[in-house]
Amino acid sequence: MKKILGILGLLIFVCSLTAIINPNFLGATNLFNTLRWTSLFGIISIGVAFVIITGGIDLSVGSTIGLVGTTLAYLLTVRHVSTPLAILIVLGLSLLIGLFHGLLITKVKLQPFIVTLCGLLLYRGAARFISNDQSLGFGSAFAGLRELAIGKVPIIGSVTLPLPLLIMTGIGIIAAVFLHRTIYGRYLLAIGRNETAVRFSGIRTDRIVILAYVVCSLLAGFGGILFALDVNSVQPSGLGEAYELYAIAGAVLGGCSLRGGEGSITGVIIGAAVLRVLYNAINILGIPTMLEYSIIGFVLLAGAIADEVVKRYAAKRKAARELLADDSVRSDEASA
Amino acid sequence: MPSFGDAPLLEVHGLSKRFPGVAALRNVSLTLQRSEVLAVIGENGAGKSTLMKILAGVQTPDAGEIRLNGQTVRIDSVHTAEKLGIALIHQELNLADNLTVAANVFLGREPLRFGLIDTKRMERETLPLLAQVGLDCSPATLVQDLSLGCQQMVEIAKALSVGARVLIMDEPTSSLSQHETDQLYAVVKDLRQRGVSIVYISHRLGEVTELADRVVVLRDGQNAGELSRVEITHEAMIRLMVGRDLSQLYQRPSHTLGEPLLEAYKLRTQANPRHALSLAVRAGEIVGIAGLVGAGRTDLLRALFGIDRALGGTIRVEGKKVELSGPHDAIEAGMALVPEDRKQQGLVLGMTVRPNLSLASLLRDSSRGLLNHAVENEITATMIRDLNIRTPGPEQTAQFLSGGNQQKIVLGKWLAMKPRILLLDEPTRGIDVGAKQEIYRLLDNLAAQGVAILFVSSEMEEIIRLADRAIVMHEGRITGELDRAACSEEAIMRLATGNL
Ligand SMILES: Nc1ncnc2c1ncn2[C@@H]1O[C@H](COP(=O)(O)OP(=O)(O)OP(=O)(O)O)[C@@H](O)[C@H]1O
Ligand SMILES: [Mg+2]
Q1: pLDDT band for position A330 (50/70/90)?
Q2: Rounded CA gap, A193 and A187, in Å?
Q3: B201 CB contacts (<8 Å, ≥6 apart)?
Q4: Does A327 score more than 60 pLDDT?
Q5: B418 CA to centre of ligand 2 in angstroms
Q6: What integer is the mean pLDDT of A115-122?
Q7: What residues contact residue B464 under an 8 Å CB cut-off, 6+ apart?
Q8: B334: region left, alpha or beta (phi > 0 left; psi from -120 to 50 alpha)
Q9: Segment-wise mean pLDDT, segments of 10 residues, chain B, 500 residues
Q10: Complex prediction ipTM
Q11: What pLDDT was estimated at residue A332?
């Protein structure tokens, strides 16, 4: 809870600062786009959070996005497969990818880092191969489908929200309920801290871990569809490149511990938002875009340090307070 | 070294330490003479380990004074403590088990040659230390290949190698076999002869009687009294620990037995595939498995619970054959296992008391996968009460509880499951005398309700008191069974050492 407040504070701080320096930040179009992008990245961050909570990692998210986006464009524009079927195929593909990762990690007992690093390479290569490394445009034939990524939903009067925001909110609510209200979410959190103890408690930990990887890849795949439609064309070598880093950074900024066993969906979404706002600020404040990674790196680091410092300070304060309280009790006893 | 006349070697005055929600130590004082074995006893959570951690520089006190040879010292790190000659052997062993014995003894102080570790010299210098603790192994042995008892000796050798004058042992025998315990006694007595002072924490009062020159008792973080050599009796110790007389040690009433609930026939475990193990436990029966550490008792329980796949043989529950591909199958069949190692296998240390207690019962209590908070809170409250778990509340992180209270949580987690067949591996390890009696009573109540109980224990007293029948193992096979009348220390020992 405290962590969420901390990261929320950071988000408000970055937003205010940007808005003060350049009021255009609050312009309708800019806000709309920032929200839209936050939602896309939020979706893939939620997926990665599931894996990180089990104590694992998924480095293949960006390549999965690339492969899914490319396959979708290929099926729709080259193969002329019907839209629902194409979507079904690519979602099935991402599900298989997650299953593949999960099985290798739990049954063959490979390390998540290695499995998903190989995935990162494999899927990027595959995306470039099936498309012959040519970019594929959706053109105007799929304008309806494209609404998924760029659609506006009127709320009140002229205020509209991006459709992806509603989609992400839905996914977020389901994920949060799963994590905090179901026994499987509890297992997930416990596995991240001590898999053996959970297995000894009669829980099929393998299945839970596999589930986490499937959720992660499925959300990456879904994100891939949205990212591809967002640009309306697919660049097989570039689509989703390094997005795994944004996803992981968002999750970590939002309070997931890479040691596992910790994290909340709200935090992860706010974490993703911070990254998008930073990106946006760099653009509209005229900061050289070359510095983008450096700035994100800096903010992540500062966040991690602040978290540690605050934790220690709070523990000290609490102990000091209790010591005082205890002394007063004792002197009361003495005087009585 | 200057002499300070009559000043005790170590003096502690008015030491206090608070943790969020708990006063672990309040105004505690203690003295330690040269060449003395001082036993520190007290109930679970009384503050024993905290006191020792402070002396060893692992934690810093909020208030109080520590004097060594009459001079006030500030012990702010393990390093300082070591320099002052104080070494602590933790409740849980702290060895790098992928390194050799010599490498562990010299960890952090490796002798160098041309900037590289001088392994030869290190091993040469380890030899006399090993002799001193009566450990008969090569310094080049990997620690993971040693038994727990030998590992303990390595810890002691390590402490001696830094020239410890004060050696603190926190429950050193809780995972040792009888034989290893005897060996430890000999080493302790020998060290005392050489002028080393020893602070010894134990819940085994027999041990304290055997070794201690003086006993200091802590209760609720405060000094509760002291006993000199001649005053040390079980009754006196218990009275000071609990604050009242403990009404009779638990003696199990005998009762009627039902049908066999758990049967193993010609079971072959992965660790000892050469021997086929057969046994049966009936409803309402409590069966103890005795034997030396390494006799294969834990392997047997693991196979029965489906953790390790059995290589052969059959397991029957209520007469029906079961196939166990993992603990989930065993639980489905109505079994539960309180595992050997509470930190690795029993607890999720980073989670709080509540989810730890409910972990094994979540599935049973949920409908459509949703957490049932009401039932979870009820389980937590019941277990904290029944097992008298000392915690500031259900939301305390398990890691911060005392060793004995952690063990109670592991027990509670499985009792909450209400199994029909309960397997336990060293169930009362680290648990104080009073709480032990309560746990025996609880187990007995379960048996009276028709639960079949099979437990492993290295404490013969526990086997004799609790078991209707004892199965004795030696080097992977069952060497005999003793019914209640025949169950004595001598009889168990004879079978356990393979002297048939
Ligand atoms: N790091 C910590 N944070 C919070 N509380 C702690 C911490 N360490 C110990 N405590 C609390 O301090 C009290 C004393 O604990 P301690 O470990 O000293 O007990 P003990 O006498 O060694 O018990 P046991 O016989 O069970 O080992 C307990 O209530 C425990 O929960
Ligand atoms: Mg202790």
Answers
A1: very low
A2: 10
A3: B39, B40, B41, B48, B49, B52, B91, B168, B169, B170, B171
A4: no
A5: 29
A6: 97
A7: B470, B487, B488, B489, B492
A8: left
A9: 67 93 93 94 94 94 93 91 90 82 88 86 90 86 84 87 90 80 89 92 92 95 93 90 70 79 92 90 95 86 94 93 94 94 92 96 90 94 93 94 93 94 93 88 91 93 91 92 88 83
A10: 0.87
A11: 41
What value, to the nearest 5°, has the Cα angle with vertex A144 and ends A138 and A150?
80
Q: Residue of the nearest CA to atom 27 in ligand 1?
A: B403
Mean pLDDT to the nearest integer, A96-125: 97
Under DSSP, is residue A152 helix (H, G, I), strand (E, B) or coil? Answer: strand
B478/B490 Cα distance (integer angstroms): 17
- What CATH number is given for B260-496 in this structure? 3.40.50.300
Q: Round to whole Å and give the CA distance between B167 and B190.
A: 13
Q: Is B264 left (phi over 0), alpha (psi -120 to 50) or beta?
A: beta
Beta carbons of A183 and B366 less than 8 Å apart: yes
Instruction: Give yes or no on whether B10-248 and B260-496 have one common fold.
Output: yes
CATH code of the domain occupying A2-287: 1.10.3470
Q: CB–CB of A196 and B21 under 8 A?
A: no
Question: Cα(B267)–Cα(A113) distance, rounded to whole angstroms?
Answer: 39
Q: Which two tokens stand for residue A21?
A: 């320096």
Residues 6+ apart with CB under 8 A from B213: B33, B36, B37, B38, B229
Residue A222 has pLDDT above 60, yes or no: yes
- Whether A193 contacts A260, CB under 8 Å: yes
Each residue's pLDDT tens digit, A7-35: 899 999 999 999 999 999 999 899 999 99
Is the CB of residue B392 less than 8 Å from the CB of residue B22? yes
Cα(B262)–Cα(B303) distance, integer angstroms: 13
| Record: contact A197-B344, CB cut-off 8 A | yes
Starting at the earlier edge strand, list the strands of the sheet with B421-425: B335-338, B421-425, B452-456, B286-291, B469-474, B477-483
> How far is Cα B343 from Cα B357, in angstroms, rounded to an integer?
14
H or E element at residue B375: helix B373-386
Task: Kindly report the backbone phi and psi dihedral angles of residue A242, in degrees, each rounded to the nearest multiple of 5, phi listed first.
Answer: 70, 5
CA torsion angle B136 B142 B144 B148 (round to 10): 20
Closest CA to B1 of B85, B63, B127, B75: B85
- Largest Cα span, chain B: 75
Q: Is the pLDDT of residue A149 over 60?
A: yes
User: Which of A194, A201, A326 faces B349 most closely, judged by CB atoms?
Assistant: A194
Q: Which atom of ligand 1 is nearest to the CA of B221?
A: 14
Nearest by CB to B359, which of A182, A190, A326? A190
C-alpha A13 to ligand 1 mean position (Å): 41
pLDDT, tens digit, for every residue of A57-82? Answer: 999 999 999 999 999 999 999 999 99
Residue where the block lists tokens 């070794």:
B211
Q: Is the pLDDT of residue A335 over 60?
A: no
All structural domains of chain B with their residue ranges: 10-248, 260-496
Q: Could you name the CATH architecture of B10-248?
A: 3-Layer(aba) Sandwich (3.40)
Q: Which of B281, B277, B267, B258 is nearest to B335 (CA)?
A: B281
Residue type, B111: P
Interval A222-234 mean pLDDT: 95
Q: Residue B484: how many CB atoms within 10 A of its CB?
A: 12
